[in-house]
Design brief:
The protein contains six helices and eight strands. By secondary structure, it is α+β, with helices and mostly antiparallel strands. The strands form three sheets. A four-stranded antiparallel sheet has the order 5-6-7-8, covered by helices on one side. A two-stranded antiparallel ribbon has the order 1-4. A two-stranded antiparallel ribbon has the order 2-3. It is flat and about 60 Å long.
Amino acid sequence: MRHEAANVFTPFINYYRWTKKQRLASREAEIPQAINYYDNGVVQTDLTVQALLERLSIKGYLENALVVITGDHGEMLGEHGMFGHQHSVHEGVLTIPMILIRYGYEGSSFGRSLSSQIDIAPTILKELDLTAPATWMGSPLQITPGPRFIYFQQSHMIGLYDLSSTKHPIKYWRNFLNGQEYVFDINSDPLEKINLIATIDSAKLQSWRSQVIPGSLIGKASTH
């Protein structure tokens, strides 16, 4: 539920009342109102977190504690003509907040430019000086990992960030419905306007393709 106290940005429009087709159409005139609706949700979240922290502080739970605040996905607010988070793997959807608050102690700083949701749990255990299970693939933010891939998927769109370069990550993803492929340098092109697929070395491209093949396709291939 949205609370009236959080409606500080006006006018606003609830774009989730639009049909799926409408959320995938160009509605540039309504983008400012959609952003206001989203920002009001952020205000309400802030108020809720503030109330929780105040209550925890009153109870004495924050004298020596670790609080982690994060999200499960981002949101498209008119970028690429989309609203919501169910339709793409653009940066607006994949980028999420992760806030770590230390109470009663000091810890090491984080210097990593790109991480994954699978890194959050190992980060918490590292902060508490606990050993993460050997089966976990994530890496604590307190340490710098070696070259690796970070994976993402939304329905038939599957991709990865290639962190093998010391310069900056390259983003690759493939639409498995139509076969289209995309490569973006998100450092210089955060809005993903320039598809670099035609400039990629064939060996590198093949290595990315092999990494994002869905398990369902591998199973089908093995039966023929």
